[in-house]
Amino acid sequence: MTYKSHTALLDYLVSAMNPNSTLPVLDLACGKGRSGLILARRGIEVVFADRSASALNDIEQYLSDNSLPGQVWQVDLEQADSKPLAGKVFRSIICFRYLYRPLFPEILSAVEPGGMIIYETFTTENRRYGRPNNPDFLLKPGELAEIFNDWQQIHYYEGLQQDPDRAIAQVIARKKPIKANEHGLASG
Questions:
Q1: Which of 10, 44, 111, 185 is the most exposed place for a label (fewest CB within 10 A)?
Q2: Domain containing 152: what range?
Q3: Is the residue at 29 inside a domain?
Q4: DSSP 23
């Protein structure tokens, strides 16, 4: 598949999300909130999660000034022995340019059945272009596809991009919905 811009990925998410869900979308490690704000401007409630109080204050002010749906959540996603997403459920999760591998089991659990994920970050090939170049922050070849191998992968791209030069992997995937059995009860 070919690379898709952040806007194209978010456009797809908006068109394909469960319209009956009342849960918010999580913008994980949101930074200044660029991607989540695109969704909020389309009327989708977003939880902006990051450790930066100043970035979250700016997002909160922007949401308030423009009467947009959303809330901020200051959280250190990498705090030892913490499980920040435990017990939380979101309609979808978006995450761009962030990687903390111990969080993936929680990410997989925090999306509602039938919900979606958009994930994009740098790969090990990025070392030749500069930062990030620490292997802890770079996906190995095929790693992102493997993490979401039990989900329906709608889009997957791994390769090089220009302006600026960077090596990335990106996925759009849908978590399997819970199906009702012949008695109308949910089954995995």
A1: 185
A2: 6-177
A3: yes
A4: P
Report if residue 188 sits inside a domain. Answer: no
Q: For residue 153, what is the domain's CATH number? A: 3.40.50.150
Contact of 41 with 68, CB cutoff 8 Å: yes
Residue linked to tokens 């790693």: 143
Here the tokens at position 54 are 């100043």
Q: Residue 59: inside a domain, yes or no?
A: yes
pLDDT tens-digit map of 136-182: 889 899 999 999 999 999 999 999 888 888 889 999 999 998 775 55
Residue 120 to residues 19, 38, 43, 144, Cα–Cα distance (Å): 24, 16, 23, 9
> In this predicted structure, what is the pLDDT of residue 128?
86
Per the CB < 8 A criterion, the answer to whether 172 and 151 are in contact is: no
CA distance 157 to 171: 7
Q: What is the pLDDT of residue 89?
A: 97
* Total-model pTM: 0.91
Q: How many domains does the chain have?
A: 1
Rounded percentage of the chain residues whose pLDDT exceeds 70: 94
Instruction: Classify residue 126: in a domain, yes or no.
Output: yes
SS3 state at 103: helix
- Which backbone phi and psi does 83 adopt, to 5 degrees? -130, 80
